[in-house]
Amino acid sequence: MKAFHLSSSSSQDVLILNFYPGELLLETIISYLKENKIKNSCVISGIGTLKRLSFHRVLTTEEKPKNEYITLEGPFELSSTQGLIINYEPHLHFVASDLRNTYSGHLEYNSQVLYLAEFTLLILDSKNHNLVRKLKENNISFIEEV
Q: So which domain of life are we looking at (predicted)?
């Protein structure tokens, strides 16, 4: 992966991540963020091609959600990814398609780049705020400040 850390005239920094064939998306993102001590960021764009797509989606409307975990072999076009990474925990939604179907849900570890992927992250200032995800009684994690 190649990373470009761009400073803007405002206090917000932008990070562009350029993934190589065979790299694992979430594993590579989190590894880079940990190495550079960037705990919180907003994924504002994520596109590319995938060899393997791992994700989960909600199956019910009950108070405690039931999820289905899926891993598919590609090729896939990753058309859109967005979400938050809080305290190194990703919560990213995506839209991807193969030659027959379109898929959407929560991107999971083990998704692998086919040819290229490009992600843009807005670095969130964590010097004044310590954000974490806390699991609630209905098995859903909410962002809180500690």
A: Bacteria
